Every structure is written in structure tokens, then in C-alpha cells.
């Protein structure tokens, strides 16, 4: 059997969470895996790198939330310790501090969503506005992450959803839209209601501790991906950076037999694509073989969002009450976050200067500005939140412009997203934009889809043991009961009025 396994060649395209997850598991099962990464380092957008002066930077800061069960399991398996303790966060507007969040798991656990509602510390938002969210709970019950639910809610915008359920204008503007701007990276009128409900439920409302978060104690590339890739290479995987896929070669049976990178050809018994939407669209654009399939042509209906990642070194220590902070109201369609790296990253803990990471999402209006103009805007925004930044001097900085960098879950996009299985019997998809039923989001979802793709390869080639994928925590009993009752009513309605019910 080992000899058979050694003959199974798998090419994985993309070395982010999904690609590394698929590669690692298949390598442990004895497969001959080649991992192709278009960028200079494995890790995709979170690979991280160093400035000319040798300082660490990365394309934005990525949190690791309480429900990331599979990533935390991986970290334990790798026997590394990359994370901070659970941290508190805050939210600011031009008027000042708006919200502070506790460590929810440290407080008495209440039935969802009471804990989130009661323990979140709003500084200005009136109770009457917060109570206007109660009717919205029906949509969270009705949206069960099924294909039917996605199709039911994906065609409308998040803004329409909140308006339909009577959410007050102030609650929308000061709570829900800021969450969309840093969670789905776009304003409410540009976000799918289905994606909004999925994201809100997973990160905030499913269980009281879900909003608790830890951060990497350095760049994700250094603290997680580097030791992970070293372990992968020890398993015999060929990890090839600066290898951009340009085409695939298909045999007469509609199977991909090779992956092409310029003049290089890599033979494969199975292929896993683990790249973002922008990267996948580039591959399809250069590949006549993929363009012959409607599902891949339709990817041109999907989009991505611009991100601006900046890092600033100030000449003095500045008191930042919370290490992670989200901000809204500074620009109508842009959300931004800032992080105290002296508190989060090991390398900055004992420095005399203050180091902050400031990231902007849906940042298209900023990308064409000069670095100097961007720094003036960033410092002005920081000083509005925390006055100590006003007199401080920037002594070093980094600006990273990331066009079309993160998935845009726009209204109507669900119909064009790909499932893990494709019309090629030996080609499988993974990534945070792939359709699956696990229920996770962001980095956790990307990693889970990588494991799912690996399992599909194992099923297809009939060799190896499938990865154990930890499910998300079950809904609380009252949510399960409510969903079962809601589905029964829907089923009854369809049986009585079959032509009146949209999917």
C-alpha cells in the first residue's frame, strides 16, 4: 500500500491556511505533494516580511477567535506557543470611546444572545436603540447556513436586512455597520445579508465566548507558518515559492493531469486550488482549459476588496487602554483597526517607542495617496481616538497597499462561488470563499476547507486516513428548538402554498 501511496502525486496551489492545511494532512498520509505559491514566501497575505531596515511587517493583523477549534488543535499538534492571552477590545468613533468588550468567557455564561447583549459595555448608545435589534433575532434563527438559507438571504443587502427587521438607524450606524466594515470589509449596502448573518452568528452571537480573541505574538508568518512549513518540508513536500500557475493540462477523460507554471509542468493525480478569488481569477484568465468550464468563467462575477496596512513607530510611549481597537465614522465606507504591538508582539514589549499597526478595509480611496499623505491621515485619526498620538513624532513607518486582497461577499455572489468539488473529477477547491456547510469563517474556514479538500483527494485516490475536522459548537437548546419549529412552519407553508415560497 505504501508503494501505491508514493505514486499518488498531488499539486496544491496556494500556500495560505487552506493550502498548508491540505498539504500537511496529505503529506502525513504519505502522498507526494508539491505546493506551489505565487508569492515570495508561503503564507499568502499573512506570510509577513521585513522592511529594508530589518523590521517585521505583515499585511494586516489577524485575530484568532474562541470558536477556531481546528486551528487551535493544529497549534497544539505543532507544539508551538504563538498566541497572546485572551484580550479585551474597544471601539472608537470621532466622538471618542464607544464600546468596550470584556473577556466573555470569564463572566457567568448566559443563554445566547443575552451574554453579548448584557456584558458589552456601550458608552453612548441608548438602550432603546439596542433593543431595536430584538426582531432581528428571527433572521438569525431562520438562517441555518443551509444552501436554501443562503439563497434566501444572499440576494438582499445587509442594509436592507436590518431595515426590514426594524433596527434603528443609530444602532445600524454605530454597531452593525462598523462590524461589517471590519468583518466583511464593506459597507452594509455592499454586503450580502446571508454572509452578514453567517458572520455575525459565528463570531458574536452563537455562544457567549465567541467574540473572545487572541493575537499572534509576532507575525503569523514567523510564529505559525514558518515552523509549520519546516515540518511540512521534513515530510518530503516540495514547497516552491514564486511559482505562479498559468494553466492546467487536461486529458481526454476530463481529468487534470498536469499543472503549468510558465515553462514548468508538474504532473498530478489530483489538484487542490487554495487561492483567493483574485488569484483564482488570474489563473482562469491565463488558462484556456479552465475557461472551457462555465463554473470557472463565472468567477469573474466575484470581486475582492482593497486593504491598506500601515505600521508606525512613534518616539515615545503612549498609553493605549486596549491592545485591539476598531473604529468607525471617520470615512463613510471604510472601517479601520489599530493595535498596540507593544502589548501584543514579543519583539516590541520592552521598546521605549510605541509601535502600532493600523489597517484600513474597503480602502480604495486611500491606495493612490502618497505614503506621506497616508501617514498624516493615520496619525490624525489615531489622535482623535487617543490624544497622546497628537504630539508624538513618527520615527519609522511601513505602508502596504493590497488591491483586491480579501473576499467581497457581495449580494448575489453566492451563486457564483464554487463548492469543494468541481466538474473535473480530480480537482478540488479550498479557501475562505468556498461553499461548505461547516459554519466557520475567515482563517478557520480556510483551514477547514483545506482539510475537506484533502479528504476529497483521499476519497478520490482511495488511499490514506481522512483528517478529523472538529465541528463548530452545537447551537444551544433554545436555538435548536426555535430552528426546528421555524423549519416546520416553512415546510408547512410550502406544502400549502408551494408557488408563494422563495427558496
UniProtKB/TrEMBL annotation:
Species of provenance: Anabaena sphaerica FACHB-251
Domain Amine oxidase: from-to ranges: 18-458
Listed PANTHER family: OS04G0560500 PROTEIN, PROTOPORPHYRINOGEN OXIDASE
UniProt GO molecular function: oxidoreductase activity
Protein name: FAD-dependent oxidoreductase
InterPro entries: Amino_oxidase, FAD/NAD-bd_sf, Zeta_carotene_desat/Oxidored
One Pfam family hit: Amino_oxidase
Amino acid at each position: 500500500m505504501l508503494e501505491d501511496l508514493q505514486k499518488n502525486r498531488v499539486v496544491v496551489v496556494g500556500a495560505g491556511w487552506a493550502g498548508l492545511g491540505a498539504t500537511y494532512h496529505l503529506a502525513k498520509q504519505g502522498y507526494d505533494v508539491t505546493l506551489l505559491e505565487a508569492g515570495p514566501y508561503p503564507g499568502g497575505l499573512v506570510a509577513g516580511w521585513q522592511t529594508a531596515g530589518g523590521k517585521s511587517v505583515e499585511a494586516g493583523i489577524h485575530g484568532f477567535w474562541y470558536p477556531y477549534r481546528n486551528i487551535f488543535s493544529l497549534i497544539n499538534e505543532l507544539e508551538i506557543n504563538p498566541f497572546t492571552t485572551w484580550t479585551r477590545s474597544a471601539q472608537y468613533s470621532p466622538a471618542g470611546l464607544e464600546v468596550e468588550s470584556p473577556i466573555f468567557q470569564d463572566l457567568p455564561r448566559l443563554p445566547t444572545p443575552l451574554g453579548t447583549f448584557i456584558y458589552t459595555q456601550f458608552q453612548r448608545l441608548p438602550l432603546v436603540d439596542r433593543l431595536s435589534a430584538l426582531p432581528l433575532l428571527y433572521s438569525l434563527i431562520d438562517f441555518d447556513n443551509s444552501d436554501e438559507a443562503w439563497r434566501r438571504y444572499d440576494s438582499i443587502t445587509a442594509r436592507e436586512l436590518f431595515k426590514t427587521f426594524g433596527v434603528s438607524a443609530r444602532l445600524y450606524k454605530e454597531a452593525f455597520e462598523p462590524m461589517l466594515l471590519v468583518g466583511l470589509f464593506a459597507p452594509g449596502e455592499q454586503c450580502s445579508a446571508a454572509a452578514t448573518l453567517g458572520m455575525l452568528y459565528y463570531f458574536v452571537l452563537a455562544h457567549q465566548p465567541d467574540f473572545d480573541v487572541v493575537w499572534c505574538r509576532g507575525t503569523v508568518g514567523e510564529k505559525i507558518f514558518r515552523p509549520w512549513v519546516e515540518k511540512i518540508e521534513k515530510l518530503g513536500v516540495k514547497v516552491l515559492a514564486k511559482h505562479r500557475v498559468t494553466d492546467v493540462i487536461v486529458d481526454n477523460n476530463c481529468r487534470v493531469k498536469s499543472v503549468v507554471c510558465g515553462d514548468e509542468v508538474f504532473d498530478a493525480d489530483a489538484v487542490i486550488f487554495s487561492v483567493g478569488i483574485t488569484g483564482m481569477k488570474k489563473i482562469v484568465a491565463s488558462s484556456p482549459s479552465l475557461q472551457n468550464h462555465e463554473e470557472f468563467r463565472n468567477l469573474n462575477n466575484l470581486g475582492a476588496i482593497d486593504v491598506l496596512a500601515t505600521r508606525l513607530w512613534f518616539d515615545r510611549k503612549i498609553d493605549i487602554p486596549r491592545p485591539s481597537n476598531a473604529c468607525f465614522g471617520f470615512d463613510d465606507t471604510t472601517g479601520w483597526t489599530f493595535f498596540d504591538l507593544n502589548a501584543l508582539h514579543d519583539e516590541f514589549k520592552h521598546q521605549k517607542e510605541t509601535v502600532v499597526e493600523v489597517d484600513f478595509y474597503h480602502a480604495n480611496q486611500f491606495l493612490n495617496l502618497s505614503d506621506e499623505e497616508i501617514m498624516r491621515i493615520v496619525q490624525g485619526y489615531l489622535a482623535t481616538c487617543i490624544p497622546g498620538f497628537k504630539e508624538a513624532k513618527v520615527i519609522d513607518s511601513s505602508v502596504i497597499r493590497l488591491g483586491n486582497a480579501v473576499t467581497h461577499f457581495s449580494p448575489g455572489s453566492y451563486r457564483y462561488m464554487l463548492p469543494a468539488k468541481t466538474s473535473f473529477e480530480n480537482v478540488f477547491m479550498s479557501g475562505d470563499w468556498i461553499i461548505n456547510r461547516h459554519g466557520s469563517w475567515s482563517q478557520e474556514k480556510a483551514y477547514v476547507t483545506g482539510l475537506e479538500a484533502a479528504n476529497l483527494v483521499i476519497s478520490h485516490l482511495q488511499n490514506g486516513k481522512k483528517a478529523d475536522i472538529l465541528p463548530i459548537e452545537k447551537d444551544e437548546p433554545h436555538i435548536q428548538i426555535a430552528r426546528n419549529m421555524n423549519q416546520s412552519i416553512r415546510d408547512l407553508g410550502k406544502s400549502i402554498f408551494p408557488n408563494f415560497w422563495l427558496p
